[in-house]
Specification:
The protein is of the alpha+beta class and about 140 residues long. Helix content is about 40%, strand content about 20%. The chain contains five helices and five strands. The protein is globular, with a radius of gyration of 18 Å.
C-alpha cells in the first residue's frame, strides 16, 4: 500500500503537478490493485470528491499515462484498464466467470522469445480462464448435484 507521500513523490519525479484529483486517482489505482476502468475510478473517488467530473478523471488518467506513472491495459475488448507502471513487469489473468483480474509473474525465459536486435519497452501478456475461487465454486456445485 502506497502512502500519500510516496504518491506525491512519484508525481514529482514524473514532473506531474500533484493536484488533489490526480492524487486521488493515482492513490485509487495504485492501492486497490483491481486494474480499474476510468468509470470505476470515477465512481470510487466521487464519495470523497462529489464535485469531480468524469472529464477531470479522464484527464488525470491521461496525464498519468503520458508521464509514465500509469499504464493502460486492454485485457478485454473495449475496456481500457489502468495499472501502476512503476512496478516489476508482470502478466495478468482475467477470470471469465467473475471478471476479477489478477497479477501473475511472467514466465521464465520470455525475453528469449524476442529476436536479437529488438528492444522491448513493455510486455503485455494476458491469460483468461477460471480463478481458483470460481473453480472451487464449480466443483462444489458439481458435487452438490
Amino acid at each position: 500500500m502506497l502512502t500519500s507521500s510516496q504518491i506525491i513523490n512519484m508525481l514529482n519525479q514524473a514532473k506531474v503537478r500533484p493536484s488533489v484529483h490526480r492524487l486521488a486517482v493515482l492513490e485509487y489505482v495504485a492501492n486497490k490493485q483491481t486494474h480499474p476502468t476510468a468509470d470505476e475510478v470515477f465512481s470510487a473517488i466521487t464519495s470523497d470528491f462529489p464535485s469531480v467530473s468524469k472529464t477531470t478523471v479522464y484527464n488525470s488518467l491521461h496525464t498519468l499515462v503520458e508521464s509514465g506513472v500509469l499504464r493502460e491495459l486492454e485485457i478485454e475488448s473495449g475496456a481500457t484498464r489502468y495499472d501502476l507502471a512503476l512496478q516489476l513487469p508482470h502478466s495478468h489473468f482475467r477470470c471469465t466467470r467473475c471478471g476479477h483480474i489478477y497479477d501473475m509473474a511472467l514466465p521464465e525465459g520470455l525475453d528469449r522469445m524476442v529476436s536479437p536486435g529488438f528492444r522491448v519497452d513493455t510486455t503485455d501478456l494476458f491469460f483468461a480462464g477460471l480463478c481458483t475461487e470460481c473453480i472451487a465454486l464449480s466443483e462444489d456445485n458439481q458435487s452438490a448435484s
